[in-house]
Design a protein that fits this description.
Blueprint: E1 31-43, H1 61-70, E2 80-84, E3 87-91, H2 95-106, E4 118-121, H3 131-147, E5 151-152, H4 171-177, E6 186-189, E7 203-206, H5 209-218, E8 220-224, E9 230-242
Parallel strand pairs: 3-4, 3-6, 4-5, 6-7
Antiparallel strand pairs: 1-9, 2-8
Helix pairs in contact: 2-5
């Protein structure tokens, strides 16, 4: 059972209201201060055993998702587990490096663990005449053709910043729009913003090229179960309301 990081009573950082004086640009008739309190504390979620259902030990949503993905009955913060990855996303920035590591470690003729669980989207190095940037996108195309990747959302530059109508755009938006963000699953991506997919009730996080290369070959990754926090803020907010005379 996780213990609270702070005492049960919330810690107040600002406990007194601060009087505001008028500035040189304010008028006595149009300035109004409205004090408001918000509490702040940081605490790990309290756990109570379940009395119904098959799960007898309470877990956070993240722990439940990772328990399913690791085929474990129970997980706690700090546990290191091998999880089965549901979706791996990469793009034109990290894709070439990830593919290189995959081929170096698993062989030049190796095949990805599941061609339908790899999503590849060029969205960073596009609409440019830079040869190295265009080469990155070409590497994605070659790899997807070689591996017969099902979900490759290619782009065709039609000049004047226009693309093919079926291009999906930014990878994080495309993941959701194309149905790759599903509740209860594990989604990993070679981009720090991958965690935004957690809004769809899944565990999503960014990883590096080395990790992505390993996932391409095995469909698994060693992850640490994170500690979840509850945050409540306690401050005094002063709102200045200016009214037209």
């Amino acid at each position: 059972m996780a213990s609270s990081l702070l005492s049960p009573s919330f810690t107040s950082f600002l406990s007194t209201k601060k009087d505001l004086s008028l500035s040189n640009f304010s008028s006595q008739r149009c300035l109004k201060a409205v004090p408001r309190r918000i509490r702040c504390a940081v605490a790990a979620p309290q756990r109570q055993p379940s009395t119904t259902g098959s799960v007898r030990t309470a877990m956070t949503m993240t722990e439940k998702i990772m328990a399913r993905a690791s085929e474990k009955a129970q997980l706690s913060p700090g546990d290191n587990v091998w999880v089965n990855v549901d979706i791996l996303m990469t793009h034109d920035v990290c894709g070439p490096g990830s593919f290189g590591i995959f081929k170096r470690e698993f062989g030049q003729n190796a095949k990805v663990w599941d061609r339908e669980k790899v999503v590849i989207i060029p969205d960073h190095y596009i609409f440019t005449s830079d040869e190295r940037a265009n080469r990155n996108v070409d590497i994605l195309r070659d790899f997807c053709h070689e591996q017969n990747i099902k979900y490759f959302y290619d782009i065709k530059d039609l000049s004047n910043f226009k693309a093919n109508p079926d291009y999906k755009g930014v990878c994080h938006v495309a993941l959701a729009q194309e149905g790759h963000c599903r509740p209860g699953e594990v989604l990993l991506g070679t981009d720090s913003h991958t965690c935004t997919a957690g809004a769809f009730g899944q565990f999503a996080t960014g990883i590096g090229n080395t990790d992505a290369g390993f996932v391409l070959g095995t469909g698994k990754l060693l992850l640490k179960v994170i500690l979840c926090f509850t945050k409540v803020y306690d401050v005094v907010v002063t709102i200045l309301c200016f009214f037209l005379l």
